[in-house]
Design brief:
The chain has eleven helices and eight strands. The chain is α+β, with helices and mostly antiparallel strands. The chain has a single domain, classed as Up-down Bundle (Outer membrane efflux proteins (OEP)), CATH 1.20.1600.
C-alpha cells in the first residue's frame, strides 16, 4: 500500500510537467526544422548521389580485373590421321586485366564534371536550407500575428461589454435611447464573432508552423528579443555592406551576387556545361584499349601438341568514322545546354537584383511606418478613453464610441502587424543577400 501511495505521489508531480506546453524561440524552430525537414533531407540525398557519381566517374580511370570461363561440348569427337581435330568437350578459363580510354581525355573531363556536381549539390542544399528556414520564420511571425490579433479581439470584447453595460445603465435611468443599447449589443456580437475567428486563425497558424518545423505536441512561442526600436536595420545594413564604398542598394546587390548560393550554383552549372561540350567533342578522338590476359584451355581427350596456357597482351586502337550523326547531335546538344546555363545565370542575376531592391525598400518602409503607427495607436487609445467617458456623462452618443473603438482596433492591428513585418523584413533582406544561413549558424554558435 505504501508503494502504491508513493507511486501516485510521484506521478502527481510528473503529469503536470509532461502536460506543460514547450516554449520555443525562433532559434529553437530553426534547429528543429533542420533536423526534421523532409525538404532538407531530399537535398542531402542529392549531395550523396553526386558523390556516388564522382565515384562512378573515377572507376573508369581504374583498370578492370575480371575472370572468365567457358565449357563447350561438341556433337562428336573428330580425328584425321590420328590427329585430334575436334575434342569431345573443351574447358576454357582465364584472367583479364584491361583498360580503355579516349585519347581526348574524356574520362578526366567526366571526373571533373562529377566533382563540380558535388559543389553544385552542396550549394543547392544551402539554398534549400535558406528557403526553408525563411518559410519557418514566416510561419513563426504568422503565429505571433494571430496571437496578437486574438489579444486585440479579447480586449475589444471587454471594451464593448463595458460599453453595452454602460448603455444599459443609461437606458434604465432614462438618459439613453433603446437604439444606443441595440447598437452596443450588435457591436458586441460582431466582436464576439471576430474573437471566434481569431481563435480559429491562431489554431490554424500554429498547425501550419508545426507542420513546417516538425513540431510534435503542444507548444507556445517565445517573442523575439526586440526593444521595440526601428533602428535594428541600420546595424544590419552596416554588417551587410562592410567596406563597400558604393551606394547602399548597389552594395547590397553586389553582396547578393557574390553570396547567393543560387548564383554560385549556376556559375558551376555553366562550367559543367562547358566541360560537357569538351566531353562531347572527345567522341571524335580515337579510343585506345589495352589488355593483359592469362588463358588456359583443356580439351578432352587431350593431345600432346595442344597449347594449354597462354599469356598475352593486346593493344587496340578504335576510330569510328560514321555513327549516323550521333556525335554531331551530342555536341550540338551540349552547346545548347551551355547557352541555357548562360541565359539562366543572366536571368537569375536580374531577378536577384530586383529581389534585393524590393527587400531593401520594404525594410525602409516598415521602419518608417512603425513610428507613425505607434503615434496613431496612442492617439486612438486616448480618443476612445475620452469618448467613452463623454458617453457616460451624456456628452457623446453611441455612434461616436463605436467610431472611436473601430479606429482603436484598426490602429492596434496595424501596429502589431507592422512590428512583426519589420522583423521579418530584416530576415528577408538577409535571405535576398544570401547571408541568412550564415547568420543563423553564427548566432547558434554564440
Amino acid at each position: 500500500m505504501k508503494k502504491v501511495l508513493l507511486f501516485i505521489f510521484f506521478l502527481s508531480f510528473l503529469i503536470p510537467c509532461s502536460l506543460h506546453a514547450q516554449e520555443l524561440s525562433l532559434d529553437d524552430l530553426y534547429r528543429l526544422a533542420l533536423k526534421k525537414s523532409e525538404t532538407i533531407k531530399i537535398s542531402e540525398e542529392n549531395v550523396y548521389i553526386a558523390e556516388k557519381e564522382k565515384d562512378r566517374a573515377l572507376s573508369t580511370l581504374i583498370p578492370r580485373f575480371s575472370a572468365f570461363g567457358y565449357h563447350t561440348r561438341y556433337s562428336e569427337e573428330k580425328s584425321v590421321n590420328a590427329s585430334l581435330m575436334q575434342p569431345e568437350y573443351t574447358n576454357e578459363w582465364g584472367l583479364r586485366l584491361d583498360q580503355s580510354f579516349s585519347l581526348s581525355g574524356r574520362e578526366l573531363t567526366a571526373l571533373r564534371i562529377a566533382k563540380q556536381g558535388i559543389k553544385q549539390s552542396l550549394l543547392e542544399l544551402n539554398a534549400a536550407k535558406e528557403e526553408y528556414l525563411f518559410s519557418v520564420a514566416s510561419s513563426y511571425y504568422n503565429v505571433l500575428k494571430s496571437k496578437k490579433a486574438l489579444e486585440i479581439a479579447r480586449a475589444n470584447v471587454q471594451r464593448l461589454t463595458k460599453h453595452r453595460d454602460a448603455a444599459r445603465t443609461r437606458l434604465e435611468v432614462g438618459k439613453a435611447t433603446k437604439t444606443a443599447l441595440l447598437r452596443a449589443e450588435a457591436q458586441l456580437a460582431g466582436a464576439q464573432s471576430e474573437l471566434i475567428r481569431a481563435e480559429n486563425n491562431l489554431r490554424l497558424a500554429k498547425s501550419v508552423l508545426a507542420r513546417t518545423a516538425g513540431i510534435s505536441g503542444e507548444y507556445d512561442l517565445r517573442e523575439p528579443d526586440s526593444d521595440g526600436t526601428t533602428t535594428v536595420h541600420e546595424e544590419e545594413l552596416k554588417l551587410l555592406i562592410g567596406d563597400c564604398r558604393m551606394a547602399v542598394l548597389d552594395c547590397l546587390k553586389e553582396r547578393a551576387l557574390s553570396e547567393r548560393p543560387e548564383i554560385k550554383g549556376l556559375r558551376i552549372q555553366r562550367q559543367i556545361a562547358e566541360d560537357r561540350v569538351r566531353y562531347a567533342r572527345g567522341a571524335y578522338w580515337p579510343r585506345l584499349s589495352i589488355e593483359g590476359v592469362y588463358y588456359r584451355q583443356e580439351n578432352e581427350p587431350s593431345t600432346s601438341l595442344e597449347l594449354k596456357e597462354r599469356i598475352y597482351g593486346a593493344l587496340k586502337l578504335e576510330f569510328p568514322f560514321f555513327e549516323g550523326g550521333l556525335r554531331v547531335a551530342e555536341v550540338a546538344e551540349a552547346k545548347a545546354r551551355l547557352r541555357q546555363a548562360e541565359h539562366s545565370l543572366s536571368d537569375l542575376k536580374q531577378s536577384i537584383s530586383v529581389e534585393v531592391e524590393n527587400s531593401y525598400l520594404n525594410l525602409l518602409a516598415e521602419s518608417a511606418v512603425i513610428s507613425r503607427l505607434k503615434a496613431e495607436a496612442a492617439y486612438a487609445r486616448d480618443n476612445y478613453n475620452a469618448v467613452s467617458k463623454q458617453f457616460l456623462y451624456g456628452l457623446a452618443d453611441s455612434v461616436a464610441v463605436m467610431d472611436a473603438n473601430t479606429l482603436l482596433i484598426t490602429a492596434e492591428r496595424q501596429l502589431a502587424n507592422a512590428g512583426y513585418d519589420y522583423q521579418l523584413s530584416i530576415l528577408r533582406l538577409r535571405k535576398a543577400t544570401g547571408t541568412l544561413l550564415k547568420q543563423i549558424i553564427s548566432e547558434n554558435r554564440e
